[in-house]
Write a structure and sequence with these properties.
With 337 residues, the protein is α/β, with parallel strands linked by helices. 47% of the residues lie in helices and 13% in strands.
Length: 337
């Protein structure tokens, strides 16, 4: 009898984790469904010591196509409960949610280094999604939440997948700034890394000379990155109005039942009630412990006590920048009325 964890490239418990462009091979890690809940993201830290197999990309993609599921996306601009939302789609028999698979980050790196362009890049991006969208059981959909470093490839991804829908999820600008300040040094470094990537993707055009970004404070850099992503979301909503819905994190968290039902309906899953009853939106996305709106408010209050003056000044500066650059602060096509 075949071992339940014997390698089968059509089996989604073998996560397509990394892509090596030099050898054109896919690296898999064995990750049973329950282990997806052990960490917020499908990082090397979570899956790096799991059983490994390597397969040629052509063989990997062919096998994945034999077990293809409908696929939809959650695109996000960070610190907006996106992990909680995609976790709600880890509902056995209905759908499976994948949180920030590194395979897509590898495609972004290849794109930014200029190693693949045009049709070759499009094929690689589409095949990466095929590898991730293997069906977990009969009738299940797959919902993928890419890292927001995929921002520059969101538009071609939706063009490549005409049957896919996407939720665009974002925190209000001021809430985003509070989160960056609260998370400390690592996050202040991360927003600079994010901005660097957005510049390479050609998504930053706010009238600054390249050297000017070095003179911005950490929270100003964070605000510029948020505005760039917000402008990208508005462009996606304009280009794909039938397949896009938008929602702010505060709206999601204040009405989780309504948001989950609307999201499940948009994605066309078979059992909307089952998704809506998933407890993911009342648990902390990183620790898994119970987490309420009052807990979130307490965290924000502490950040404002320590960094309120900086946050207020940068928020006002960013609103002026948005007005000058024509970035609308309200997105169209709301998920909830």
């Amino acid at each position: 009898m075949k071992s339940p964890d014997a390698f089968d490239p059509a089996d989604p418990t073998w996560l397509a984790h990394r892509y090596d462009p030099a050898d054109d091979r896919v690296m898999y890690r064995h990750l049973p469904r329950a282990m997806h809940r052990d960490g917020p993201f499908l990082t090397d830290e979570l899956v790096g010591d799991r059983p490994k197999t390597i397969l040629a990309r052509s063989e990997a993609v062919s096998a994945a196509r034999s077990n293809a599921a409908p696929v939809n996306f959650v695109f996000h601009s960070a610190f907006c409960a996106s992990t909680m939302l995609v976790r709600a789609f880890d509902t056995p028999g209905v759908s499976m949610g994948l949180s920030e698979p590194v395979l897509l980050n590898d495609v972004v790196g290849i794109h930014r280094r200029g190693e693949r362009t045009g049709a070759d890049l499009a094929r690689l991006l589409d095949e990466a999604v095929t590898l991730l969208a293997r069906r977990w059981s009969a009738g299940e959909h797959v919902v993928i939440k890419p890292s927001n470093i995929l921002c520059g490839l969101q538009r071609p991804l939706l063009a490549l997948r005409p049957d896919a829908h996407a939720i665009l999820l974002f925190a209000p600008l001021r809430t985003f700034l509070i989160s960056v300040a609260r998370k400390g040094l690592w996050c202040r470094l991360w927003v600079r890394e994010l901005l660097q990537g957005l510049i390479r993707d050609g998504l930053i055009d706010f009238g600054f000379a390249p050297a000017d970004y070095f003179r911005l404070s950490d929270l100003q850099v964070a605000a510029v990155g948020w505005l760039a992503q917000h402008r990208q979301f508005a462009a996606l909503a304009t280009q794909f109005p039938a397949r896009i819905r938008t929602i702010e994190s505060e709206r999601l968290l204040s009405n989780p039942d309504g948001a989950l039902r609307a999201a499940a309906a948009l994605f066309g899953v078979s059992d909307i009630d089952a998704v809506a009853m998933n407890p993911a939106l009342v648990r902390h996305s990183k620790s898994g412990v119970a987490f309420s709106a009052s807990d979130r408010a307490d965290e924000h209050a502490a950040a404002l006590a320590a960094h309120g003056d900086e946050i207020d000044k940068v928020h006002a500066w960013a609103l002026t920048l948005a007005e000058t650059a024509g970035v609308a602060m309200t997105l169209p096509l709301p998920l909830l009325d």
